[in-house]
Amino acid sequence: MHSPAFQLSPQFVQELSDRISGSKEIIAPHSALGDVFLVGNAPSPEHLAEMINVAHWASYATEEGYSVTASLLLRQPDHITDTFHFDTHIELTARTIVKLGPALEDPRADIGVWPDEAGQLKIWGFTTISYETAIASDLLIKILGPGRILIMYSGRTIAALTANRAVFIDSRSFLHTVMPKIAAQAHTTDISLVNLFRYNAILKIAQQMRTHGRGGTVLIVPEDMNWKKSIKAPIHYTGGASFLDPDAMLSTPSRTELADNENLLRIVRDMNLTLKKDWLRNWQQVQQQCTRIARLTAVDGALVMTFDRYVYCFGAKIETIDTRTIATSLSVIEPFEGHSMGVHPFSSLTGTRHISAAQFAYDQPGAISIVASQDGNVTFFTRDMETGGILTIQQAEMALLHEGLGGSLWNLSLFSDMGWLEKDVSKNEEGYIAGFVRWMRNALLKADS
Question: Rounded to an integer, what distance in angstroms lies between the CA atom of residue 153 and that of residue 402?
Answer without folding.
Answer: 9
